[in-house]
Amino acid sequence: MKHQWNQNLLHTFLCIWVVNYAYFQLCILLPLLISPTRSLDWDSDIITTQEEREKEENDALSKYFNATKRDVNHFPSWEKMKEIIGEFEDVAKEKLRNHDYNAMTAMLKETALTYPNITSLYSAGKSTEGRDLWVLIISDNPTTHEELEPEIKYVGNMHGNEVVGRETLLYLIDILCKNYGKNKWLTSLVDGTRMHIMPSMNPDGYERGFDGDRQGYTGRENVHGIDLNRNFPPKYPAHRERTSGLYPEAETLVVMAWLKSQPFVLSANLHGGSLVANYPYDDSESGADGIYTMSQDDKLFVEMAYRYARGHANMWKTGRRCGLSQNGDVFVNGITNGAGWYHLAGGMQDWQYRFTNSLEITVEMGCFKFPTNAMYPKLWDEHKFALLSFLALGMGGVRGIVREANGQPIGNATILINDGKPIFSTSTGEYWRILTPGQHTITVIADSYESESFTVDLALPESAEVKNVTLSSCSAPVDKQRNVYRRGRGMTRIAVIGYSPLATPALSRLLNETCAASTPTHLPAHLSLLIIPSYTSGLANTIHKFDPRAVIMVTSGAPSSVLFSPRDTHPPLFQKERLDTSLKKAIPSEGQCVNEASGTRLAQEVDTFSLHDAFSLAVSIGCEGEEDYGKRWAAVEGVVEMIGNLLSSDSVSEYSVLPSANPLDHFSPSEALLSTSASLSIFEDEQQCAHRVEHSRLRITAVGTGRPPFTLVAAIEKRTESLIYEYLTTLCNSTSVRHKELKRRGTILFLPEIPSTQQNCHDYGSIDPFRFLLQDVQSVIPALDNAIFVASGGLKIRYLDPSGNGVTKRMGEAYKKEQTLMATAEYDVCSSERNTIAGGRTMSGKETLGGMNWSEGGGVDALLVQLGCCYEERSSSGLFSENEKALTAALEARTRGFSVPKDAAMVRSKSAGQEWKERGGAVFVPLLNGEYQLEIVWKNGEKKEVTVKISDSFPLVEFHPSSSSHSLLLAALLATFIIGIGIFALRRLGYSLYRRPFSESTVGFERIPLYMSEDEDEDDVINIRAL
Ligand SMILES: [Zn+2]
């Protein structure tokens, strides 16, 4: 099983049962009376509620196969399979029992000896303790790969104590062998495929397990305590768990090599602990659970999973099963997306999907992980037809051989399918692709060859078609008349179009470089290009059909770029300024020609492509008469590569079909409101806590005095948006002294959503792309000089301190001390950049607090806080509780210093030679702890020297001019936020300070209450809140 913690409430329900029985004396009514909460045992019926019935009509299976999901010709039931297969000799009763390593080995060897014509036993490699990972091949020609015969496989017992797969695979071997030549259906399966069966991937773990273990963990992992189904190289290394290990274990390495050694087409990985067929992906991008994370082959995987489930006696049923606790596991139609259930990193099926041609699902074979011998006859009976039905899928789909015109096979050709992952031809040019019934367009692409496309139309899952493909050498264009070419095999499609005669030679060179067999290809593997060296009207439809994610129009003019598409189609990390700078550097040009890119004709032409989501831009590469084609070509190639990288680095594939996966479900309806943009207008309109800052594009909300210091708090990731909304909500609603005081000390600008928000959870090597965001805010609030960017993808803080005043570092320290997860952490626990020092267990990694710089120097002081690993199993609501105090602490640290709220023109420090000018009506001087001699220069020209002492107890000193004289009057000494004390203590401290104003004073200062409360009259002091 994947991993599930259940509370065993069996006894509770037994009690209920007994009481009910005694009371009613009507045992026959009992199941009806208590069925909704009754405990289930390992082989009980699956119980469906009305709500689950309704879900059954809205799940992925219904979405894709509504018309055929109950058609037993499409998805054969247990009964249908029994009928199709007909009579066969089943496993002898005495064999239906547990087989330990020695018994399993003996059984496999005996089979190989008894059936030498159709079996071949080999060891894929050794386990950590030296046991063989046996694989038995069953096929009509077992020792060699036959041309176009699909290689398919089963893997059992990856978790050592999940043994139903191991046993049923041994029984499967038994019936396949002894019915060969006797039963027609079974014989055709053996003849038509080459089956590789690995009954145990974790024989060491098995030997530590014990029969009768229903839901335990003894023997699950390998002998190093590593969970092999977490040990494959993960898509998101930061999602690794404690049991994942840092490096692949012996068993994992053996299996990885084995998976690469054969062109496997189809596979299932058999686990136990629940009853469901689970399909990729297992890991979600954010690392959250319950997020349906579909692969490109989602429909096919749904078909594969339901194919298995439907062939099982019970798995396919919707409802609760494995009721070892009150809840058990509920599945709709007996299948689930892996991450839609819960996420895991480093699983075998995800790795296999990403790095091999094979498509694998993971089957939970039953509620009981390690059954006793007596349980096997029933288990085998339930599974046998599902195991066979699933294998038959391997014979379906399309297969063929890719060759050159002269008949030579083309290895490593890409077989692109319009609705699935690409696969690659073997060294003998062979390919296999399982497909769902229906029509599919397949394109075959190979380096140095022109691509070929064809369609196949398949009726049933087992329908097969052979399509051999001959590719011609790549100098020939896709569309000869109009000189349209296709290059590359990747999934990121970019159209590169020459729009001026000047562009043609550069694009021809690009064509040449990306094709010619004699020169190394310059095209990154993830790109697929449509190249039109010389654009003519009438190609709009060709470009539209190519469905590019970006269109680059190459034209003449001074080196620069023009963007056509709306900003939300731009790659989030795209920077026009940087592109223009590098174009100017790359292409020496006088620019003495019309810039066609900025003309309306080109923009209108791009419109005719009807590409609503594509990132469209024009790039000017100089003027006619400037002889530098080489540089122009290099520049075009550079632009293509840069945009290709930007597009592929931040693509989003996470989506949710399950209502419970919506993070807002974790809030009550009224709370949900407070974590979304709906809260903004409430506070602005009704409570007047927040003020909307006028800006053409950004939704900026200001809270506080309207005076400096100005601090921006921006969520730069989708995941952290609700944290900012919630924080804003809390700040406005809160009656806490600390929050009130914070609002009184300056202005906080909230930017909960940004136009180019990061959809993906990832670590940030640089925050340069957000520099423009800051500039955008500064365009309306020039006094803004500090920002906090809130993201995830790590558990750490980076401070950027271009002003050198040390404030951001102090903010970072304050943040860290009050962030519940970071407080004591030395290293970023999310970081994959950890190393084991040879022989030891010492880890090194990124510190939780460190510096960072804007790459081009200068810039605004900023803090980048990363609040959680991508894999963390919680909703965004957890972020708030962990970070609320920390964010407050950082904002408090930001306001440490000396403030003159009005009438001052500037404050200067003669000794440091620094001055701080009035901004937004006030002067704020950020200061670290210490004593400072400062001079206030009033607007009327008068000056006043003051001594300011900043400490942890008095972090902010405010200075107010008297209304009657220019001599200075008061200062506000502000709340003490001694680090480490709780909010309760803070509140008490706050009140005590308020009730007992300080009467002793240092020279020239009078201390006054620290904050204003709404319900108390403060007329004895200057109203420092007056704006
Ligand atoms: Zn498992």
Task: Characterize the structure shown.
Residues 4-40, 516-521, 650-679, 834-844 and 963-1027 have low confidence and may be disordered. The protein is α/β, with parallel strands linked by helices. It has an eight-stranded mixed sheet, with helices on both faces. The chain has an eight-stranded mixed sheet with strand order 25-26-28-27-29-34-30-33. Helix 11 (298-311) runs antiparallel to helix 14 (376-392). Zinc ion binds next to loops. Keywords: Carboxypeptidase, Glycoprotein, Hydrolase, Membrane, Metal-binding, Protease, Transmembrane, Transmembrane helix, Zinc.
What topology emerges from the helices and strands here?
Layout: H1 10-24, H2 30-34, H3 50-56, H4 60-65, H5 78-85, H6 101-114, E1 119-126, E2 132-138, E3 151-156, H7 164-178, H8 184-192, E4 194-198, H9 203-208, H10 250-261, E5 264-271, E6 274-279, H11 298-311, E7 319-321, E8 329-331, E9 335-337, H12 338-341, H13 348-355, E10 359-366, H14 376-392, E11 397-404, E12 414-417, E13 420-424, E14 430-433, E15 438-445, E16 452-458, E17 464-466, E18 469-471, E19 485-488, E20 492-498, H15 503-513, E21 527-532, H16 540-546, E22 550-555, E23 557-563, H17 576-586, H18 600-607, E24 615-622, H19 629-649, H20 669-674, H21 678-687, E25 690-693, E26 700-704, E27 710-715, H22 718-733, H23 737-744, E28 747-751, H24 771-778, E29 786-791, E30 794-800, H25 807-818, E31 835-836, E32 843-844, E33 849-851, E34 861-868, H26 877-894, E35 897-900, E36 904-909, E37 914-917, E38 923-926, E39 930-938, E40 943-950, E41 956-961, E42 968-973, H27 983-995, E43 1007-1008
Parallel strand pairs: 3-4, 3-5, 5-10, 6-9, 11-17, 11-18, 20-21, 20-22, 22-24, 27-28, 27-29, 29-34, 30-33, 35-41, 42-43
Antiparallel strand pairs: 1-2, 2-4, 6-10, 7-8, 11-14, 12-13, 12-15, 15-16, 19-21, 23-24, 25-26, 26-28, 30-34, 31-32, 35-38, 36-37, 36-39, 39-40, 41-42
Helix pairs in contact: 6-7, 7-14, 11-14, 15-19, 21-22, 22-26, 25-26
Bound molecules: zinc ion.
